[in-house]
Specification:
- The complex is a heterodimer.
- Chain A is mainly β.
- Chain A has one domain (4-108): Immunoglobulins (Immunoglobulin-like, Sandwich), CATH 2.60.40.
- Chain A contains no helices and eleven strands.
- By secondary structure, chain B is mainly beta.
- Chain B has one domain: Sandwich (Immunoglobulin-like), CATH 2.60.40.
- Chain B is 0% helix and 53% strand.
- Chain B contains no helices and eleven strands.
- In chain B, strands 2, 4, 5, 6, 9, 10 and 11 form a seven-stranded mixed beta sheet that branches.
- In chain B, a hairpin with a 5-residue loop joins strand 7 and strand 8 (74-78).
- The interface between A and B is medium-sized, with 20 and 25 residues.
Chain lengths: 109, 110
Amino acid sequence: GIQVEQSPPDLILQEGANSTLRCNFSDSVNNLQWFHQNPWGQLINLFYIPSGTKQNGRLSATTVATERYSLLYISSSQTTDSGVYFCAVGFSGTYKYIFGTGTRLKVLA
Amino acid sequence: DAGVTQSPTHLIKTRGQQVTLRCSPKSGHDTVSWYQQALGQGPQFIFQYYEEEERQRGNFPDRFSGHQYPNYSSELNVNALLLGDSALYLCASSLLTEAFFGQGTRLTVV
């Protein structure tokens, strides 16, 4: 069946470190987004990136649709980056998003 | 732009009761989707409304129903609440592509 898998499930970093979060998906995609969920539950949009590469400050993302994966890069991490990062994939022929299981990031001061 | 707004933010209900959650989409967005997020898991798709019709439905029982109004705002209704319905309910609005989420309604069933 259609699957979205994220890795690693948990990540602990020292402030200032860099990290790469991965999202693998099993089928052709129409839409792909990365979100950061804060401790209050709000899903914050990071990137809308069904293909290609985008950058926004310390964050960047790359999606290689033909190889069915997307990467989120966080550079010079800060304690405020802590939280859960979700990849959400909209597959061809469907209107819904399927979310991955998330990567729980903790950045230590 | 107020973004996606949901009400109420928190709610406590008794098993067997009925609940209505509300969502106002981002300005200019015509599509509203609802998701359920259990503790420690990713959001799960409940259904999507477009042009006041349910366009797609996830794997949820008929106890979950919805409505979309002409101004694109939407409601999620859950009947005969079960303890397992306790979760964060998220509303997302979109216009063709990128989805934006509200802050959610945290429902506790006791």
